[in-house]
Automatic annotation (TrEMBL):
Name assigned to this protein: Aminotransferase class V domain-containing protein
High-level lineage: unclassified sequences, metagenomes, ecological metagenomes
Pfam hit, one: Aminotran_5
Stored InterPro entries: Aminotrans_V_dom (IPR000192), PyrdxlP-dep_Trfase (IPR015424), PyrdxlP-dep_Trfase_small (IPR015422)
Domain Aminotransferase class V: 22-137
Organism whose genome encodes this protein: marine sediment metagenome
């Protein structure tokens, strides 16, 4: 089988019913058309990360995480994620004590608050581009 159209020895493009043989070089592992929009998007995003700096990004993520965890605790939620910064990440997974997670998940999604549902737990993954107000909006809807 071919990995992509660039891996094959095409004579012409008149017959697509039979796959041509693979190229005899490392080009046999080429995929299809390159995702140029994705490549340029990745390049610009990497520039932004380097401009802000990983330490500042980490600081921002943990700031948002702190707002989120404190707000969830105030609402009596059970938090699955490690609380300590040493073992934690930006991802916060929780359950509401009075509301079924699937019901809460559906309500959040209806309000365009993007979270995921994992084995009965709601997972929030804030990143440096999220705002304090977005986290507070999520908390207001929990």
């Amino acid at each position: 089988t071919n990995t992509g159209w660039l891996s094959a020895q095409w004579v012409d493009f008149n017959n697509f019913s039979e796959l041509p043989p693979l190229k005899n070089s490392a080009a046999r592992y080429e995929e299809g058309t390159k995702n140029l929009i994705g490549i340029f998007g990745l390049m610009e995003h990497l520039k932004l990360i380097l401009e802000i700096g990983p330490a500042e990004i980490e600081k921002r993520i943990f700031h948002l995480r702190e707002i989120l965890i404190n707000g969830l605790k105030d609402k009596g939620c059970e938090i699955l994620s490690p609380i300590s910064k040493k073992n934690g990440s930006g991802i916060v997974t929780f359950k509401h004590v009075k509301t079924d997670s699937e019901v809460l998940y559906e309500e959040l999604i209806k309000k365009k608050i993007i979270v995921s549902l994992r084995s009965g737990w709601i997972r929030v993954s804030p990143h440096f581009y999220n705002t304090d107000d977005e986290i507070k909006e999520l908390l207001n809807n929990v």
